[in-house]
Amino acid sequence: MHDFVGNVHLILLMLLVSQVSLFSQSIKENFTTSRPYIAESFVNQLMSIHIEDATSMTFRIDHLTACVNQLARDIMSREKLVFEKYAFIVCIIVTMF
């Protein structure tokens, strides 16, 4: 079953590439993606409230929990966006044929 799904994805990708190459002479598309700053924002939020001495760094448990919860929300939001883009492309490919 896994090989079948892989083959279907490969065929869909080949069809997409062939369709894009047919229209590439007349249509020029520029795709930009925004870089997800998930790790940077997590670290910045975490470091905003901490106690630091010479050998250790301490975070309040409620602050750490809030930071981890925000990290989880950011990751789920990114995954949802990636899935929606993938589903949109698959819908376009399916409707082409």
- What portion of residues is helical? over 70%
Order of helices and strands: HHEEH
Number of domains: 1
Unreliable runs: 19-27
Q: What sort of overall outline do the alpha carbons produce when their principal axes are compared? A: rod-shaped
Structural class: mainly alpha
Distance between the termini: 24 Å
Q: Tell me the β content.
A: under 5%
Strand order of the largest sheet: 1-2
Instruction: Give the biggest sheet.
Output: 2 strands, antiparallel
Q: Please, what is the average pLDDT?
A: 75
How many helices?
3
Radius of gyration in whole Å, from Cα?
22 Å
* Count of β-strands: 2
What would you note in describing this structure?
This protein is mainly alpha-helical and 97 residues long. Helix content is 70%, strand content 4%. It contains 3 helices and 2 strands. A hairpin with a 4-residue loop joins β1 and β2. The longest helix is centred in the last third of the chain and has 36 residues, at 61-96. The chain is rod-shaped. The two termini are 24 Å apart.
Summarize the structure.
The protein contains three helices and two strands. The protein has helices at residues 2-23, 38-47, 61-96; strands at residues 51-52, 57-58. It is rod-shaped.
Primary descriptors:
mainly alpha, 97 residues
Fold topology:
Elements (H helix, E strand, L loop, with lengths): L1 H22 L14 H10 L3 E2 L4 E2 L2 H36 L1
Antiparallel strand pairs: 1-2
Helix pairs in contact: 2-3
